[in-house]
Write a structure and sequence with these properties.
Distance between the termini: 26 Å
Number of strands: 6
Number of helices: 2
Number of domains: 1
Strand order of the largest sheet: 1-2-3-4
Structural class: alpha+beta
Order of helices and strands: HEEEEEEH
Radius of gyration: 16 Å
Shape: globular
Helix content: 25-40%
């Protein structure tokens, strides 16, 4: 294993630890975090990941073929809206803001394989 491969593995482990701590911090605050598994194919490469979300926040994690932390989103508490997964209902008098779909995995994958300074 060369130095670049070693550094990549260390970075991936650090990133996995960061995501695990983020998920744990939500749970410690008694925030129920839901998961939306996603899978798509981009240029012959199968991408798998998840969107973790609760009422006002979401973030994306690409799990395969590389592990990468993707984009996220937040809504102000004063807005009567919440994140909704496909097939979910936001509830009465609440605006449903759809979560992003598999395109967020493609965006995360592109950023992971070709990081720009």
């Amino acid at each position: 294993m060369n130095d670049a491969q070693t550094t990549h593995r260390e970075d991936e482990k650090t990133l996995r630890d960061r995501v695990a701590k983020l998920i744990e911090s939500f749970r410690a605050q008694r925030i129920h975090l839901s998961e939306l598994p996603l899978e798509t194919v981009h240029e012959g490469v199968t991408l798998r990941g998840r969107i973790y979300y609760w009422s006002k926040d979401w973030f994306c994690v690409l799990e395969e073929p590389v592990f990468a932390f993707g984009p996220d989103g937040h809504m102000m508490a004063l807005i009567p809206a919440r994140c909704v997964a496909p097939g979910q209902s936001p509830g009465d008098k609440i605006i449903g803001r759809p979560l992003p779909g598999a395109e967020v995995l493609v965006e995360t994958y592109k950023a992971a394989i070709d990081p720009k300074p």
